TrEMBL record:
Residues 1-25 are annotated as: Disordered. Keywords: Membrane, Transmembrane, Transmembrane helix. This is Band 7 domain-containing protein. Belongs to the band 7/mec-2 family. SMART domains: PHB. Residues 51-210 form the Band domain. Its main location: membrane. It is found in: Membrane. The chain crosses the membrane at residues 32-56. It comes from Meganyctiphanes norvegica (Northern krill). It holds the Pfam family Band_7. SUPFAM superfamilies: Band 7/SPFH domain (SSF117892).
């Protein structure tokens, strides 16, 4: 004689009235409500058309729920569609490109400088059904994610990189946001860094540094000019020393330049040749 343990005995339902499959009961209830809705719509015709007929624009789609479940066939529209009263609800989704401003974010850069940076994000809904069923508020979620992504991206950059590499930072943000929002049915099309605000003390320090750099460059340029001028004068002196007539022509040119000025008293020196002959006689 064999005995069965409690674990080997098939479990039985305690209540005789409990249904075998809850899914079948839900399906039956849904079918009954579906039929009742149609009966109500037909009885109240044509007044029911005001409630049942809906229209969406070319740039809109309607996501329909029947008793809390997504209706098969995806989003409806554009154009006219039918809604059963009492059991069906719908949500409109705008497919146009939307834009929002990312509020100024206080960011500590890699070189320990606090800056305030804001941006603008362009996005659009690519999958209306997913944007309704997978996230509570797609636009708000994308905005909050953009703020976090902006802080994370700028936190790994130096101040000089933030000021000079805005385009690369924008592209990196766009790729990161687009990857994260893909599960929400949203595509981020463009991200732009609007403004980078520096502390007042840092602005003054940068201005002083730039001014000192310009002054240093000016001094270097002036020194180089004096060096080139002295070389040119040395070469001219060598040429004049080789030809005494050139020195006489230089005197005449100098006199011409002086005589061009007004109210000037000009003293003509003795000719160079006369002085040289006098020196020889001595």
């Amino acid at each position: 004689m064999t005995t069965l343990t409690m674990s080997e005995v098939p479990a039985r339902k305690m209540s005789w009235g409990e249904p075998e499959d809850p899914g079948e009961d839900n399906s039956t209830c849904s079918s009954v409500l579906y039929v009742i809705s149609w009966i109500i719509a037909i009885i109240t015709m044509p007044f029911s058309l005001i409630v049942c007929l809906k229209v969406v624009q070319e740039y809109e789609r309607a996501v329909i729920f029947r008793l809390g479940r997504l209706l098969a066939g995806g989003a409806k529209g554009p154009g006219i569609f039918f809604i059963l009263p009492c059991i069906e609800t719908y949500s409109k989704v705008d497919l146009r490109t939307s834009v929002f401003d990312v509020p100024p974010q206080e960011v500590l850069t890699k070189d320990s400088v606090t800056v305030s940076v804001d941006a603008v994000v362009y996005f659009r809904v690519m999958n209306p059904t997913t944007s309704i069923s997978n996230v509570e508020n797609a636009q708000k979620s994308t905005r909050l994610l953009a703020q976090t992504t902006l802080r994370n991206q700028l936190g790994t950059k130096n101040l000089a990189e933030i000021l000079s590499e805005r385009e690369s930072i924008s592209n990196a943000m766009q790729s990161s946001l687009d990857e994260a929002t893909d599960h929400w049915g949203i595509r981020v099309e463009r991200v732009e860094i609007k403004d980078v605000r520096l502390p007042v003390t840092l602005q003054r320090a940068m201005a002083a540094e730039a001014e000192a750099s310009r002054e240093a460059k000016a001094k270097v340029i002036a020194a180089e000019g004096e060096q080139k001028a002295s070389r040119a004068l040395k070469e001219a002196a060598d040429v004049i020393a080789m030809s005494p007539a050139a020195l006489q022509l230089r005197y005449l040119q100098t006199l011409s330049t002086i005589s061009a000025e007004k109210n000037s008293t000009i003293i003509f020196p003795l000719p160079i040749d006369m002085m040289s002959s006098f020196a020889k006689n001595q």
